[in-house]
Design a protein that fits this description.
membrane, elongated, mainly alpha, 107 residues
Length: 107
């Protein structure tokens, strides 16, 4: 039905926008994770706080890495969902995926 097709295109459009937003969120988390890494990458410096640290920095890099991992899993799942929708060979769904990706990158 036409209403079902419009709803399908809107869902694919939103999934594509969310996919692009996750890509940007992952990049932001990567930047924060790199800034949270200690100067020395020895095992002891990663597990123990450095001398003179005033905040709870122990494990901060691990939380960023864990967040990045979760973002990656969600991004892969969304990517496969959009790919499977596009492989339905429906022109409108394909155009919805392209429009969503464009809109998500623009925003």
């Amino acid at each position: 039905s036409p209403a079902g097709m419009v709803l399908s295109v809107l869902v694919i459009l939103l999934l594509s926008v969310l996919y692009e937003a996750l890509k940007m969120g992952k990049a932001v988390l990567l930047r924060r994770a790199l800034l949270a890494l200690p100067r020395s990458l020895s095992r002891e410096s990663l597990l123990e706080p450095e001398e003179g640290d005033t905040g709870p920095t122990q494990g901060r890099w691990f939380r960023y890495h864990l967040s990045q991992t979760l973002f990656h899993v969600v991004q892969v799942v969304l990517g496969y969902m959009v790919m499977l929708a596009v492989m339905s060979y429906n022109t409108w769904i394909f155009l919805g995926a392209i429009a969503g990706s464009t809109l998500g990158y623009f925003v």
